[in-house]
Design goal:
This protein has two domains: 309 residues, Aminopeptidase; 176 residues, Glucose Oxidase, domain 1. Helices cover 27% and strands 22% of the residues. The chain is built from twelve helices and 24 strands. The longest helix has 28 residues. The protein starts with a helix and ends in a 20-residue tail after the last helix.
Length: 583
């Protein structure tokens, strides 16, 4: 045998030994993840006893206690407040007094528009600051919808610019299914395209005009209103005792001094001055927008905008809920002070307080916090077995696997967030008030609805949807793909919901988004929606436990690899590339 061949053989042996040792390490943890545990735990988490796990209720407290007990049993340590497993989340009702303004300077002529007089700031405009922007881009309807062949931002770099858009109703050519994108135009410009500010047209009376909620309160969609309704009942009870709480302008769990990019709407007077030197004047642009015809797109040369954010906030109400937080310490003396986060939300929408009554269209359940499946009107509890009972037990299984299996170099943080259904409350709070240094978190893996097949189709039995994996760190995306390839039974990875034009907009609708907003690389694991989403028939009996186990194993293998990197995954911030066409 030649020396060269001997060298190749020794290298091959060394590689084989490394692969075997890696497989043995991960295999030890993988073997601790099984469908028996998952089914046993979920049978309690999604039982009637925990009453649908709505925030501010006994049921969610029972769920928190159950998770705590299991963390003690498996050997995961507390990482909440004061050496406990619980982190108190303060949900604040806030009144705002605004003196914010927008000043427009055009070729030496200046006009200032106050909040409520020409422009409207969100009630939560963030901390006091002044932002001057001398690059102003008019982007027509401000809408990217590739599926509808409508792309206002194609070929336009608006990073660091102020984006202006008109037309609250959007273009006539936009199919009905894409019209839901109209309400997120300010958010899209700022958060996806990295614009420094966004100004949209004010809607007619009763409309929203694309202005995002002040605190992302609708981020999870309308079904979350059920949980907020429970809190409103508690407020009413307090008023009945003669201690009336002042009405709040907005609800938040985030820091009130956070510096937020300006996101406002404006009226005709503002736009008439803003476009007074433009190649197309506002009267013509308004006519085109009202006719829903194609709008032009151009830079507003010689225009400077100065946003003066000046608001005072008074907390008038505080409600308390809890995150559950546990930690498994890493094995490396230096890297154990950095963290990989595994998260899920453990709240759901609760139960119906009202009774079943006859109506003109048949029986109905009064006070339902979500959809009532026809024929199941008698079921008053929204058990949430898949949403997000599957995620709850997935993270429990991950904690057990890392606590009782081989330890990677980095520490693992396990967080069960409260209030996701109400607007990502628990994760937003943790991101602003972390129990470990936020800059030491190298990645966050979020698990939400991973126990079913999308639309209950058997063709989906091998599919998991990944969202956000390539947006902040391409390296994390590739680590995840490599982890899947090494599984005994690899899953089919689908990136449809990662496409920025996807109508479900899942990237902003679950807890990973709170971490991504801090610049932390994320992956959101989900298996998609189905007929029982937010319905009272989301039951344990419908969970595909074999599939759930495999998704948890993929999350474990991905987390293991990230936790053993000698450095954090590179944050190249290239944005979403894997989408509907990705295989």
């Amino acid at each position: 045998m030649s020396r060269r061949r001997l060298g190749i053989s020794l290298s091959t042996v060394a590689l084989a030994i490394w692969v075997v040792s890696l497989s043995a390490a991960t295999g030890g943890g993988l073997s601790l993840i099984n469908d028996r545990d998952l089914k046993d735990w979920l049978s309690y988490i999604a039982s009637d006893e925990v009453e649908g796990r709505a925030v501010f209720t006994t049921g969610i407290g029972l769920a928190a206690g159950y998770i705590e007990d299991h963390m003690r049993a498996v050997g995961a340590n507390p990482a909440g407040d004061a050496g406990s497993y619980l982190q108190t989340v303060r949900v604040l009702g806030v009144k705002a007094t605004s003196r914010s303004t927008v000043t427009v300077e055009i070729d030496g002529e200046t006009r200032t528009f106050a909040d409520g007089q020409g422009v409207t700031f969100p009630r939560n405009a963030g901390g006091k600051r002044s932002v001057a922007i001398d690059r102003v881009e008019f982007a027509g309807y401000g809408l990217d919808a590739p599926g509808a062949n409508h792309m206002n931002f194609r070929g336009k770099d608006v990073k660091g610019a102020a984006v202006i858009w008109l037309g609250t109703s959007g273009p006539r050519s936009l199919d009905a299914q894409y019209r839901r994108l109209l309400t997120g135009r300010n958010r899209y410009a700022i958060e996806d395209l990295k614009a420094a500010a966004s100004i949209g047209a004010q809607a007619p009376a009763g409309g929203r005009g694309g202005q995002p909620p002040a605190d992302g309160a609708a981020a999870s969609g309308a079904p979350g209103a059920g949980a907020q309704g429970a809190g409103a009942g508690a407020q009413a009870a307090g008023q009945g005792r003669g201690n009336q709480i002042p009405a709040a302008d907005f609800t938040t769990v985030q820091r009130l001094d956070s510096l937020l990019p300006p996101s406002v709407t404006a009226n005709d007077a503002f736009f008439e001055f803003l476009f007074s030197r433009a190649p197309t004047k506002y009267a013509e642009l308004k006519r085109i927008a009202e006719a829903q015809e194609p709008l032009p797109s151009f830079r507003l040369d010689g225009v400077k905008l100065t946003f003066n954010v000046d608001a005072d906030y008074e907390v008038v109400r505080t409600r308390l809920t809890k995150n559950v937080v546990a930690i498994v310490e890493g094995s490396d003396p230096q890297l154990k002070d950095t963290y990989v986060v595994f998260g899920a939300h453990y709240d759901h929408v609760g139960y119906a307080e009202g009774e079943v009554t006859p109506g003109p269209n048949g029986t109905r359940r009064l006070g339902a916090p979500g959809r009532v499946t026809p024929g199941a009107e008698g079921d008053r509890i929204w058990n949430g077995a898949d949403d997000d009972g599957s995620g709850i037990v997935a993270v429990m299984a991950l904690a057990k696997a890392f606590a009782q299996g081989p330890r990677p170099k980095r520490s693992l943080l396990f967080i069960w967030h409260s209030g996701e259904e109400s607007g990502l409350w628990g994760s937003r709070y943790f991101a602003d008030h972390p129990t470990v240094p936020i800059d030491r978190i190298v990645a966050a893996l979020n698990i939400d609805m991973v126990g079913r097949n999308r639309d209950d189709k058997s063709s989906e039995e091998n599919t998991v949807y990944l969202v956000g994996s390539d947006r902040i760190s391409t390296e994390l995306h590739e680590i995840n793909r490599g982890a899947n390839e090494e599984l005994p039974r690899p899953l089919t990875l689908n990136y449809e919901f990662n496409d920025p034009s996807d109508l479900e907009q899942l990237y902003t609708r679950s807890d990973h988004y709170s971490y991504a907003s801090k610049g932390i690389p994320v992956i959101f694991f989900t298996t998609g929606l189905h007929p029982d989403y937010h319905a009272n028939t989301d039951h344990v009996s419908k969970i595909e436990f074999d599939k759930l186990t495999r998704v948890v194993q993929l999350a474990y293998e991905t987390g293991w690899r990230v936790a053993n990197l000698d450095r954090a995954p590179v944050r190249d911030n290239k944005g979403p590339r894997a989408g509907k066409a990705t295989r």
